[in-house]
Fold this sequence. Notes:
The complex is a heterodimer of chains A (311) and B (110).
Chain A: E1 6-12, H1 16-27, E2 32-36, E3 49-50, E4 60-61, H2 62-75, E5 79-82, E6 85-89, E7 95-99, E8 102-111, E9 115-117, E10 133-134, H3 137-140, E11 148-152, H4 156-165, E12 171-175, H5 185-192, E13 197-200, E14 203-211, E15 214-222, E16 228-232, E17 235-238, E18 242-244, E19 274-276, H6 288-310
Parallel strand pairs in A: 1-2, 1-8, 2-5, 8-19, 10-17, 11-12, 11-17, 12-13
Antiparallel strand pairs in A: 3-4, 6-7, 7-8, 9-18, 14-15, 15-16
Helix pairs in contact in A: 1-2, 1-6, 4-5
Chain B: E1 6-9, H1 14-19, E2 25-30, H2 35-51, E3 56-61, H3 67-71, E4 79-84, E5 87-93, H4 98-109
Parallel strand pairs in B: 1-3, 2-3
Antiparallel strand pairs in B: 2-4, 4-5
Amino acid sequence: xxxxxxxxxxxxxxxxxxxxxxxxxxxxxxxxxxxxxxxxxxxxxxxxxxxxxxxxxxxxxxxxxxxxxxxxxxxxxxxxxxxxxxxxxxxxxxxxxxxxxxxxxxxxxxxxxxxxxxxxxxxxxxxxxxxxxxxxxxxxxxxxxxxxxxxxxxxxxxxxxxxxxxxxxxxxxxxxxxxxxxxxxxxxxxxxxxxxxxxxxxxxxxxxxxxxxxxxxxxxxxxxxxxxxxxxxxxxxxxxxxxxxxxxxxxxxxxxxxxxxxxxxxxxxxxxxxxxxxxxxxxxxxxxxxxxxxxxxxxxxxxxxxxxxxx
Amino acid sequence: xxxxxxxxxxxxxxxxxxxxxxxxxxxxxxxxxxxxxxxxxxxxxxxxxxxxxxxxxxxxxxxxxxxxxxxxxxxxxxxxxxxxxxxxxxxxxxxxxxxxxxxxxxxxxx
Lengths: 311, 110
């Protein structure tokens, strides 16, 4: 094989981690290409505002931040391709990335394909998706003006989105399976002060019910007593965690039980020359600010790997 | 927002442009505030180019045209609906991979 057809690194995913890996690779004059199946921005595309990314004292539009990060990477000549990765070949010195529309060869790979929201697993959830069941408050809140909705979940995303929804809806019931929320304290305080938000704790949602008009009510179950009750709502927004987008990642690359990729602190996976960055990694704090750090580290170490093996 | 192979439809033109169309029509219901809608826009453009004359592709801004999405019970965007002979043939909610949209189109145009 002619080594000029072999990319130094192929970055999979165009969220904050992948774009930052691309920025660092492009500035290092590596022959790098980033593969993204949709638009750039990753999970930023589904949020309204970011208040915890340093450098923006008044916060920054999530979508706008995605555009800024991608513009910065592209300014230094990062190549990109709109396609979907379906498999990786990680044996031998030259690796392959299989796309729906071709195969690319490379010396190193940065896996930054992120994560997707979990489904709740309630009866009726699939049936009513798009008809009252939503996973994106910014996208769908305007369809529920002056109506009652529920948010299921107790983490940062659930509580922030509940606060966002109050700009549109009449009332938000936050349904959480534990006796306390998991969200960051400052977010919890903001929600507690909001008169439109009510909390329904120690409660799970086994079923979503409705009719031709879409969602009409939730079946609630108290986790302690097991008793069930009915909550009338016009919509339900589900924020119960994420799962990694690693369906295409082969088993040689070590993952945890949920499929998040294990790395060391240099973002190296169990297979030499394969790195991972951002939410796809097994780690504790999944934030934009940690994703961009991962991306920079992964690209830097991909460069060092090439120096050591190919020069 | 629409690429060159894509038409913009409104509540006023929906009947004629979509329901009375002679070929299957993919309608992308979107709004400017919706990030995932913008994310799949390039994919819709590509599909419009690839399917050419076999498929009509249209965009409906739900912010300016509330009647049509309401008629089809749409309460989430992006929603993609493929209409065939005036009826809903396939429906996809949320931003999904191009291959999944292509599979739905292939099924509809049979």
